[in-house]
Amino acid sequence: MCSSWKDVIYYEPKKKATQTFKIDIDCHLNEEEIDLFVKTRKAILSSLGFTLIDYRYFQTERGMHFWFIAHGELLDDKTKNLYQFLLGDDHHRFDINRRRIERGIPWQKANILFSRVIDRKRNYDATFELQTYKKYLDKIEGDKNDFINYAIKVMLND
Fold first, then answer.
1. Are 53 and 18 a contacting pair, CB within 8 Å?
2. Alpha helix segments (H runs only) across 73-129
3. d(CA 150, CA 141)
4. Which of 11, 57, 62, 84 is the least crowded, having the fewest Cβ atoms under 10 Å away?
5. Contact in structure between 18 and 69 (CB atoms under 8 Å)
6. What's the number of CA atoms in the CB half-sphere (13 Å) around residue 82?
7. What's the pLDDT tens digit per position in 27-68?
C-alpha cells in the first residue's frame, strides 16, 4: 500500500498510555483458575492492542475484583467501559457505567468497584451520607420527615 506525501508529512501517531481496567466478577476462583483467567485477559488485551504490564486482585464477599494495568492506545470513556466488559467485567456494572458516562460523570468517578450494592437506581452516583444522617435521627424530637427530606436534598445536591 502506498501513502501519499501528505499522509507522511501530516502523520500523527496515536497517543499511548498506561491504563487500568477494573474487572468485577461475581464468583471466587482458585489459584489455577486465576492463572487461566489472567492468561486469557492478557490474550484479549493483546488482541485489542494492549500489553499487560501488571495485575492485582482482591477477594470480596461476593466474588473478586481484578485490576489489569496495560499499555496501549489512549481510549475515550465509552471505549474503556466496553473493553472492561470484554475483559469479563460484570454486565450490570457495564450498564451502570454506561449510564454514568452518558450523564457526563467523569470516568475516574464513574468507574468504581464496590463490595456491596449501594444503589442502582436513578441517583446511584450521589454521595451516600445517609449513615451520618441516621446517627442524628435518634436525637431529633418531633417530626423526622423534614430532616429526612433535607438529608436527601443534601445527598442529591439539590
1. yes
2. 77-86, 91-102, 107-110
3. 15
4. 11
5. yes
6. 6
7. 999 999 999 999 999 999 999 999 999 999 988 888 899 999
